[in-house]
Specification:
Blueprint: E1 2-11, E2 14-17, H1 19-25, E3 30-36, E4 41-47, H2 51-64, H3 85-94, E5 98-104, E6 107-108, E7 114-120, E8 125-136
Antiparallel strand pairs: 1-8, 2-7, 3-5, 3-8, 4-7, 5-6
Length: about 140
Amino acid sequence: MLQKTFTIQTNGPRLYEFTDQIAQWVQGNGLVNLFVQHSSASLLIQENADRDVRSDLTAFFDRLVPPATHPSMSYLTHLYEGADDMPAHIKAALLPTFLTIPLHEGQLALGTWQGIYLVEHRVAPHQRRVFASVLRDQLPVHL
């Protein structure tokens, strides 16, 4: 099994594409599993052609789960790290924290307009770690 940790520098809430980093690292056939090692960030496979998709998704999740200072969020008690802390945990609970992508002949089997994204839910800059494992096909050899 091949393993590596990717570090993604973030600067506020948005989708950060890192498809190319993964694509340059993978090889062979099998599966690549990605896992974000943080409780206030997520992973997504999403369209990578139109930037409006990314900004619309960020706006949607901010509307769905506003900052703790919003009157609709007055029930929150986990506010130790700011108004975006608990909302970031909620967003991470709603979105995936791991992805599995097939590999075919050394290529990610993504669709034409798909990219791999880290979704940052916090306002402050962070260095996010994504742990990657490649599980290669272990086909039996017949003599």
